[in-house]
Amino acid sequence: MEGFGNMDRKLIGVDLGGTTTKFAILTENGDIQQKWSIETTILDEGAHIVPNIIDSINHHIDLYKMDRSQFVGIGMGTPGTVDLEKGTVIGAYNLNWKTLQPVKKQIEEGTGIKFTLDNDANVAALGERWKGAGENGNDVVFVTLGTGVGGGIIADGHLLHGTAGAAGEIGHVTVEPNGYMCTCGKKGCLEQYASATGVVHVARDMAEEFSGSSKLKQLLDNGEEISSKITFDLAKEGDTLAKSVVDRVSYYLGLALANVGNTMNPSFIIIGGGVSAAGDFLLKQVESYFKQFTFPTVRNTTILKLAVLGNDAGVIGAASLAQRFI
Amino acid sequence: MEGFGNMDRKLIGVDLGGTTTKFAILTENGDIQQKWSIETTILDEGAHIVPNIIDSINHHIDLYKMDRSQFVGIGMGTPGTVDLEKGTVIGAYNLNWKTLQPVKKQIEEGTGIKFTLDNDANVAALGERWKGAGENGNDVVFVTLGTGVGGGIIADGHLLHGTAGAAGEIGHVTVEPNGYMCTCGKKGCLEQYASATGVVHVARDMAEEFSGSSKLKQLLDNGEEISSKITFDLAKEGDTLAKSVVDRVSYYLGLALANVGNTMNPSFIIIGGGVSAAGDFLLKQVESYFKQFTFPTVRNTTILKLAVLGNDAGVIGAASLAQRFI
What we know:
The structure is a homodimer.
Chain A lengths: L1 H5 L3 E7 L3 E8 L4 E8 L3 H4 L2 H15 L7 E8 L2 E3 L4 E3 L12 H9 L3 E5 H12 L8 E6 L3 E7 L2 E2 L31 H4 L1 H13 L6 H7 L6 H9 L3 H25 L3 E5 L7 H14 L2 H6 L1 E4 L5 H10 L5
Helix pairs in contact in A: 3-4, 5-13, 7-10, 9-10, 10-11
């Protein structure tokens, strides 16, 4: 019975980031059995990255006394622009990868295991969809609020890439037609309001026109560094200015996600990334605007949720990519 | 050789509307071989609709001396809320269908041919995607500007429905957070600005604050009925107010479609429906805002186009639904 032989088959998920590379060995059901991480060495134009990944995988397979034939495949999430067919990456500047990297070829040769990859935001979306807040649904949208704002979309069970790989770029939805200039060259992108630096930008601007009593205002006036976290913490404590900042950020997030909802009617829109550490305090306020800006069917059937997998979303989603080899 | 036997297989497409029901017999490649239409009789709570469809199909199959076994299936686009699994329709008010209609069961029994259906906007999207401006692409969005604003989305080759069938409701994207009240109960829906009645609404409001010389202003001041068509025609002739109205409408359409582009990066976003009869004059202005509100990858790879199939989009898309029976 082939079914029995398959019971022990495993997936490997790799989450390649600018500072650390995370690894996990998972069952075919997506349960993490082993996980570890290594520092990402970006010296020499990132030439050590792939060899280090290969060594680390081989080392751990031997360490756990596993057999290469047990592994269905390796999936990886990476920054940069990915060619899904060829298994290459280009333009991952935080890895110093400026030229085309034949990642699939190198890792398959170095490990003897099939390999596939996608970009990091898509992979995190797949992870949260499969084993996290997405409840393995067919229509799930994931947005990550970190240094930037990224996202990934699963629609009718398929991860969307669009015609040029830009599907899911929710960070560049225009929420304020004459708003802040974005690094992408256009104005009013969600990323400029709802990323960690976006929240601080909103806080600085609102502080200039604020005249009441506020700890956040004091910090800014004293030239102290503020952060998205400080802003949310002060808002939770009732600071008037900080509350207004969170309200503004929630308005833009609520508007952008409402229109994603109005367009696609997913079962869940999941909010992850560092800024989402503000938790239910943020979620409730975003939800209020989301309900204001969605029409009834979507308001009643598309649910906003916080991500639940944290750092594991990447390795789990990456591993799910390898399921295509089953 | 089974391949030869299949060469003569046909599809039937039905486009059920509030005033006429259109029919076509198509090849498996989507070429229309015969088409006809009947009046839609909505008397007696729409009880005659399905029997009339059955009679018309049977009559034409006999008329063309065709054999039921030639037909792969019948697909239909319908107003109202569709249950895809059960093949039922409810709440199609322009058909007087207030209670659940077991359309699939009735038509399969009445014709002896397999039947499937979807809502009319989705079916038109499938038609334009397959044989029209969509060039049979995997990622195509269709928006129809008529009495209302509807839409349909094909993503990664799949027609999207979302968790409650509301995917593609681009008419309810919020384009003006404190804008016109919509029939859906929320403010600022695209439909309130870019439908035929929306254009007139914008014209009336802008006329109130307009003080220059304008034929459109004169018509309104004289209490004459104006239409979306009159507004566009006057704008083409250089009427100052009418030009401003078209600019405002194009701005909202450009913003909404840009954000659909930023989210999904389709190869084509196709604009159809009565208002799109304004043609390139409208398209160019929408495109200008679309480019302003999209980030570079989408700006360079997602193309706005006018629909090309006109009234045939419905029967062609409906027929494509029946391909699932192949």
